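Budget justification note: compute hours in this period were largely spent on complex prediction jobs such as the one shown. Inputs:
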Amino acid sequence: MEIIFVLLLLMIIGSIVALETKDLLAAVISVGAVGLILSVTFLFLAAPDIAIVQIVVEVLVLVILIRATISRDTTAVSGDREFFGMAVSIVLLVVIVIFGIRVFSDIPQFGKPIIALFRDAPSNTYISRGLKDTGAANIVTSVILDYRAYDTLGEATVLFTAILGALAILRSKARKKLKGK
Amino acid sequence: MVGMTLIVKTVARWVKSFIFLYGIYITLYGHLTPGGGFAGGVIVACSFILLILAFGKEKALKRISKALASELDSIGALMFLIIALLGIFAGGTFFINFIQKNAPGQDFHLLSAGTIILSNIAIAVKVGSSLFMVFVILAVLRVVKKGDKLEMIQTNMRGEE
Amino acid sequence: MIYILCLIFFMVGLYGVLVKKNIIKIVLGLIIMEYAVNLFLIMLGYREGGVAPIISEGDSITEFIKHSVDPLPQALVLTSIVIGLGVIALMVAICIRLYEKYGTFDITEMRRLKG
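Corresponding output:
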């Protein structure tokens, strides 16, 4: 419990450093550090599946960001947007925090999830009958590929579309042909 | 010299097959231990990305070309859909686990969870090939100044044309 | 209390998106927001002294039901992380295109994007 507090504080500090530092390379590496701490936090929260996926995805994001955006002739951009917009956005952030504190007092306490409070929550069915129904010892896998496989189908579609979009945006051959006409 | 120094190349040559093997292990045992298709696919993609970073683009693209990666991407998505559609013919419902229902395997063994292991393999193929492809596209491009215009060119991994 | 820290973590990312001028910093802010939401969803399913939702050979099911954490948010966050990776790749591709067109990462100098 206390260790999660400490890790969360570290993550907040890391993200502030990432947003406020002048050097773009340092900012990208700070976000990578935040992601690795997040992976450790998932381990403490008893979610080893998520921890594995998070650590691998974090490495990939770091490599993509460094290779694709940090070129030698990148001009450093510093400073913020104009004062009025900044003031408005900070007021907005404060308002959201105030309402968020009010909302978070109504949801179940940390450490007492819905499956412990209600006997007929859907997760209780998954836990108690998952092994018998699907034969998978890992309940998370049985949820994503058997009980809720539609989610995974949608996820595959979204990933396919995103990759297709990236390929279409970066394709250079067709543009040259168009210019020649 | 294409790629990084000799030290990096030697270590990458030793390590790459182990990373690939670990990705396959994570995929196949996803229903018994932490892991699954997503993590396994990303690890398999990482082994090829290590190849690109250490040896340059050509050596990795000799093993798995861009067209092959694109085909594998579609094959993975189609495999997942076919597994789902087989459920209609075998069990009457989309996405039903028909193998486990008709012939359940022994619990806690590799061949136990019916279609889950097949779906894991399909998703690993899909995620791995698509992430490899997007890395190839994103990482070898570099914006340079040509005259007064900016242009994107393809480079090797040290930034030379 | 720990949820409020999570909210502050989210707000740091939102601050980056709203205030920063560099487009790479905005992408980093979006990544941080995604982290905060994933962490919040996993925290909602955590049970005090809980074990991971994986049955080992020889465990009794009744003991497992009493101690396991909620598997549902974990399954949803698993898909969310991979989708996040695809979205980040798309955002970086757009950033590279914008850099090619305008020669800068500064969003205030991309005049044709101004509303």
